[in-house]
Automatic annotation (TrEMBL):
Summary of the function given for this chain in its UniProt record: Catalyzes the specific phosphorylation of arginine residues in a large number of proteins. Is part of the bacterial stress response system. Protein arginine phosphorylation has a physiologically important role and is involved in the regulation of many critical cellular processes, such as protein homeostasis, motility, competence, and stringent and stress responses, by regulating gene expression and protein activity.
Activity regulation, free text: Appears to be allosterically activated by the binding of pArg-containing polypeptides to the pArg-binding pocket localized in the C-terminal domain of McsB.
UniProt-listed Enzyme Commission number(s): 2.7.14.1
Catalytic activity, as annotated: L-arginyl-[protein] + ATP = N(omega)-phospho-L-arginyl-[protein] + ADP + H(+)
GO cellular component terms attached to this protein's record: extracellular space
Gene that specifies this protein: mcsB
Entry keywords, A to Z: Allosteric enzyme, ATP-binding, Kinase, Nucleotide-binding, Transferase
InterPro entries associated with the record: Arg_Kinase (IPR023660), ATP-guanido_PTrfase (IPR000749), ATP-guanido_PTrfase_AS (IPR022415), ATP-guanido_PTrfase_cat (IPR022414), Gln_synth/guanido_kin_cat_dom (IPR014746)
Residue ranges of the motif RDXXRA motif of the pArg binding pocket involved in allosteric regulation: 338-343
Protein name: Protein-arginine kinase
Length: 354
């Protein structure tokens, strides 16, 4: 698969599949941080060592069993234009850190984009597995399988008492971040989420925006992930997160039911106003479009709006990001030009669906 194919489609092939509880949980992700024992960590390395890491990782990847894993395509960061890196970030295929900071980094991507292995990011390896809907356990199984294969070929930096050694102390131990992306509009509308977040934090979990640490929760999308990596097994971390997500799903469903029973007219007015905005705007900023897309998705999930697939909203959430807009236009765009193109693409995409 070529770079052009990875950056031309807004929605990854794995996202087109319908996972469990997909009306609330958009995706599940497991990310493992690993370092090669014989090399200096990326934060203190030089260009020659970074290139050697890429060579060794590529050689090891080529030995993975082809009948158990899709072939992986390597893309070097120094071969990409800034807008191409931004598109990969917007699709969650690479981290903002790899796009910004790593001159000698790379990423290995599977054909359906569910597997992403970042090389020379904050750590030598960041193994990421993405699944649609609520499938944390399945994502962990897939990540562990890749990790076990690689560990047969590569000597990881590991200590018996501390576990896997990482550049950032907060990742030491399992080196694992488990996360789910959730759409929680009803908990936001009813202001219940503000009361829930402190309780989640006390359980060693954290609630972030759509692109992780430091990002804003656009369109009522929230990333729930573990903070603790040391002192617990991978399975225990996933099970703790799993139980919290189950409760969040139940509370979001209860809040949606309450809105339907007690505020249906107001809810219908909100979702149809947002649909009207998307169908008719000639200029729209990313924050407003994200909120309107969230409202319309809620309307679809509650069957207030018919004839539009929730899949197009997943697509539009990515397609209308700044990097994708400029990739689509094949040129750099000023903010107002992006806002005009964003409105045009949304109108045309919704019209195609109806």
């Amino acid at each position: 698969m070529s770079l052009e194919q990875f950056i031309s489609e807004a929605i990854s092939p794995w996202m087109k599949e319908k996972g469990p509880d997909a009306d609330i949980v958009l995706s599940s992700r497991i990310r493992l941080a690993r370092n090669l024992e014989q090399y200096v960590f990326p934060i203190a390395t030089n260009e020659e060592q970074s290139k050697s890491v890429i060579t060794e990782v590529k050689k090891s990847i080529e030995t993975l069993p082809s009948d158990s894993i899709d072939s992986l395509e390597m893309i070097l960061m120094n071969s990409l234009q800034p807008v191409e890196k931004r598109v990969l970030v917007e699709k969650h295929l690479i981290s903002p850190h790899l796009a910004r900071e790593s001159k000698n980094g790379a990423v290995l991507l599977s054909e359906n984009e569910s597997i992403s292995i970042m090389v020379n990011e904050e750590d030598h390896l960041r193994i990421q597995c993405l699944f649609p809907g609520f499938q944390l356990r399945e994502a962990l199984s897939s990540a562990n399988q890749i990790d076990d294969w690689l560990e047969e070929k590569i000597d990881y930096a590991f200590e018996e008492n501390r576990g896997y050694l990482t550049s950032c102390p907060t990742n030491v131990g399992t080196g694992m971040r488990a996360s789910v992306m959730m759409h929680l509009p009803a908990l936001v509308f009813t202001q219940r989420l503000n009361r829930i977040i402190p309780a989640i934090n006390q359980l060693g979990l954290v609630v972030r925006g759509i692109y992780g640490e430091g990002s804003e929760a656009l369109g009522n999308l929230f990333q729930i992930s573990n903070q603790i990596t040391l002192g617990k097994s991978e399975t225990d971390i996933v099970e703790d997160l799993h139980s919290v997500v189950v409760q969040l799903i139940e509370q979001e469903r209860a809040a949606r039911k309450m809105l339907l029973e007690h505020s249906k007219i107001q809810l219908e007015d909100r979702v149809y106003r947002s649909l009207g905005t998307l169908e008719n705007s000639r200029i729209i900023q990313s924050k407003e479009s994200a909120q309107c897309l969230s409202d319309v998705r809620l309307g679809i999930d509650l069957e207030l709006i018919k004839g539009i697939s929730s899949n197009i909203l997943n697509e539009l959430m990515i397609l209308t990001q700044p990097g994708f807009l400029q990739q689509f236009a094949k040129q750099a765009l000023q903010p107002e030009e992006r806002d005009i193109l964003r409105a045009t693409l949304i109108r045309e995409r919704i019209k195609l669906e109806q």
